[in-house]
Write a structure and sequence with these properties.
The chain has 281 residues and is of the alpha/beta class. The protein contains eleven helices and nine strands. Helix 2 packs antiparallel against helix 11 and helix 7 packs parallel to helix 8. It starts with a strand and ends with a helix.
């Protein structure tokens, strides 16, 4: 079981800039918990995401000697990938690829065709620099724009990524519209059909629907889950203030209740929960 903690996703939409030293303190605390991966920042245009303009500075101040957690950074184009790939501390580069043409334009200012071309180049950069590309299929369960969506569309995207030898694909419920049937059907089809790909779940949710989504993904064979402490963050296009990231504490509680040993440092986890209140207040 892999838990990916996503402070980057929680922070990036906040209008008030979080001081760099506060980000560093928070992420250093998260690094002590024992999560598989920390999605810590992004190498994107500071005009597009001002909150992430200090990612390189944050990285330079992280305490990585005593952690087993790996670092993931989001990139939106080749230039960002080239910059991120220069940092030996980063293990994963994440790229958001949408099955919604409208959202792809809004999120990365590219068409889906252009994004696919960029993704192929980013995969090449990753392979040359010893990084692993994580591709997020955003709007993977539907979209609010009226763009076509069905399971076959998602499967076709996965087939294209498979040809590029992408090793990790995270299905992203960007606006919280997934339901247990959609989640179960996609993972049950994709996981056995593409044995060389590790599939993850990046699920946005309301406080009342998180468990049914986690349960559906887990029972369908998913063993990689993204979350953010207290469910902070989410998608500003969700049109529902209750839709946020999957709360990590809910993920942890669910998996421990069904008997899984996540090997997390409980004291460090409690400390991160306390710190999160100050960071996101």
């Amino acid at each position: 079981m892999k838990i990916i903690e996503c402070p980057r996703d929680a922070m990036q939409g906040m209008k008030e800039f979080i001081p760099t030293e506060q980000k560093v303190k928070y992420i250093n605390q998260l690094l002590q918990v024992g999560f598989d991966t920390i999605d810590f920042g992004s190498f994107v245009s500071p005009k597009a995401i001002p909150q992430m303009s200090d990612t390189a500075e944050v990285l330079a101040n992280l305490e990585l000697e005593s952690t087993s957690s790996k670092l993931l950074a989001i990139v939106a184009n080749v230039r960002g990938a080239e910059e991120a790939a220069q940092h030996k501390e980063i293990a994963y580069l994440g790229f958001p690829l949408s099955v919604s043409e409208t959202f792809q334009q809004r999120n990365t200012n590219k068409s889906i065709t252009e994004a696919m071309q960029q993704l192929a180049q980013i995969q090449d950069i990753c392979q040359k620099h010893g990084k692993v590309l994580v591709t997020y299929i955003s709007m993977g369960f539907g979209n609010p724009y009226g763009d076509p969506w069905d399971a076959d569309t998602v499967i076709r995207f996965v087939e294209q990524l498979h040809k590029l030898q992408v090793q990790i694909i995270s299905l992203s419920d960007t606006i919280g519209v997934s339901d247990p049937d959609k989640i179960s059907n996609l993972f049950k089809h994709l996981i056995p059909a593409f044995e060389g790909i590790e599939f993850g779940a990046h699920l946005h949710t309301t406080p009342t629907t998180w468990q049914e989504k986690v349960e559906a993904a887990y029972q369908a064979g998913c063993r990689r889950f993204d979350g953010a402490l207290r469910g902070y963050g989410g998608c500003p296009m969700a049109k529902d203030e209750l839709v946020g990231n999957m709360p990590t504490e809910s993920l942890v509680g669910y998996f421990e209740n069904i008997g899984l040993n996540l090997s997390l440092n409980k004291a460090a986890f409690a400390g991160a929960m306390r710190l999160s209140e100050a960071v996101f207040s």
